[in-house]
Amino acid sequence: MNILITICARGGSKGIPGKNIKPICGKPLINYTIDLTNKLKLKWNSKVALSTDDQEIKAVAHNLGVITAYNRPNFLATDTAGKIDTIKDLLLHEESLINDKYDFILDLDVTSPLRTLEDIEHALELMIANSEAMTLFSVNNASRNPYFNMVEENANGFYSLVKTNTDGSVLSRQAAPNVYELNASFYWYRRCFFDTDLKSPITDKSLVYVMNHICFDLDHPIDFLFMEFLLENKKLDFAI
Description:
Blueprint (H helix, E strand, L loop, with lengths): L1 E7 L14 E2 L2 E2 H13 L3 E7 L3 H9 L19 H16 L5 E5 L8 H13 L5 E7 L9 E3 L5 E3 L18 E11 L15 E5 L10 H12 L8
Parallel strand pairs: 1-4, 1-5, 6-10
Antiparallel strand pairs: 2-3, 5-9, 6-9, 7-8
């Protein structure tokens, strides 16, 4: 089994300037993802590949052992560029170097590092056990439920539940169907996924891995401060 681990880290973040290499608890943020890849390389036949348009990010990654001659093309370094196209371009580059195809691709998001080695391993086991699955992504139980306490504007300008179940109503949160939030931490892909024209990891043959611990993405400065507080004060009950 041959695995490509991708790290996509674009420069020019607007929400948190320089967030991919912004220090958190004395380490650049990207350091936490690279630390995990070092553990994974001890378990699997895998290659770690970096996609960035930023030379400072590339230099930090180089100092942490991730060395690459690949530069993300300008058309994939915009705010509107899709993540799937970015991963695919990197994948094709890496496969050209080995003249072979990878079996699985694991994409690790730099800005959502609250994941464990066990999360990644168990998620891959789910993928291997279901040969039809094309993708798998990490999720948490949702804090809000579209069947119970999420509403949207309807055609007549009033507001109603986003979803209704078969009997038309859910009277308690506990009675609502289970729903999950993507936490943007990691994504598994079968190689065949990148032979399609799909632009989203959410397909009709997708699995989820439900994390049993906190995990969230760094979108705003307050998110960074919150995560730094958790790490500095050892508030996590798991090791990343």
